[in-house]
Amino acid sequence: MRKYFGTDGIRGHVGQFPITPDFMLRLGWAAGMAFRKHGKCRILIGKDTRISGYMFESALQAGLSAAGADVSLLGPMPTPAVAYLTRTFHADAGIVISASHNPHNDNGIKFFSGRGTKLPDEVELMIEELLDTPMTVVESAQLGKASRINDAAGRYIEFCKSSVPTSTDFSGLKIVLDCAHGATYKVAPAVFRELGADVVVIAAQPDGLNINADVGSTHVGQLQKAVVEHGADLGIAFDGDGDRVMMVDHTGAVVDGDELLYIIATDLQERGRLLGGVVGTLMSNLGLELALKARDIPFVRAKVGDRYVMAEMLERDWVLGGENSGHIVCAQHVTTGDAIIAALQVVLALRRRGQSLAQERLAWHKCPQVLINVRFAGDRDPLVDPQVKAASDSVTERMGGRGRVLLRKSGTEPLVRVMVEGDDETEVRGYAEELANVVTEVCA
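The structure assignment produced for this chain is given below.
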């Protein structure tokens, strides 16, 4: 059992343990000790645009230096960019200071291995063990040094462009980008403009406090409005750290991760580059599974979380996987979920087929799916409560094989996610509300 790490690193409310400067100092030291090889190591640090990133960057840097680790600072940079740069600079590890799609008063830490992948369990456990030991400082001559990589953004922009053929030309395409006042605010507009698109940018004025505030992949209302007002062909919404993407077609209709995954998968299949099947999650829409089956594309479900999607992809040697939330991993290009890379693959597929996003999103039927989040407190696990189990079993039985019920705890917030999916929207919503009410009563 992990003491600090969740499904996506360490995350919480700024100022509340463990998201405090003193803990980050110790975390930096523990990470430096864990990654040291032959007495030295090099670790990259990137962050999103939230105000607390400056504080935690300094604390991590001090702890790493105390352990004898050299530090290379990237500044505000999308999470997948840190993974890419860690790999290309041959660093021992990469650290991202971000709470992804959460508001500015949350923050967190994600780690990448030297290969640009999520850390193996044994390394996370080693860091946790070191956190519970007395902190030491290496000899003065062995202290780590810090430097800044000034061309990090340019390197990542060129990498993103290299994921599409050199002949790619998006001219004549009008795109609205919603950067969530987050880490993509510089690089995403540059990528699409340099590929020839007419780009309108919203939510790209970060002030440290407005990250994800009613914008981005979890709040697409402003993007929908902007796409229609500007007469754009489509809109693209990133989350605060740039590893999630959602889209909007020219009518303002939302296109989620499942639909984007289908577009990429079928394009790869048509070009003979799919190499296996597609990995989804327990939350992937049943309609996606059925649509892929109709195309003879294998589909398997992993646990929710891009690390589990990636693990399943690696085990099967498949190149594509993702979540309906917009985490999409295109393993022929990247080692983790990358919103800009995924968006490029979608737009490229549309251009190849001469289709609009509105036409592509109608290629298969989504089963009605209702998700209700129920907040809980304390150490009690609502999912093992007999009353909750009985209610879930009852709904499953009444659906008679025409849908799915899924109850799970969030890996990043104290929430129980109640999901019901089936062929009748009114029925599905009623069942979801019924289960959510039971969970709420138990959590009260």
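Interim note for the steering committee: The CA atoms of residues 263 and 346 lie 6 Å apart. The first helix runs from residue 21 to 35.
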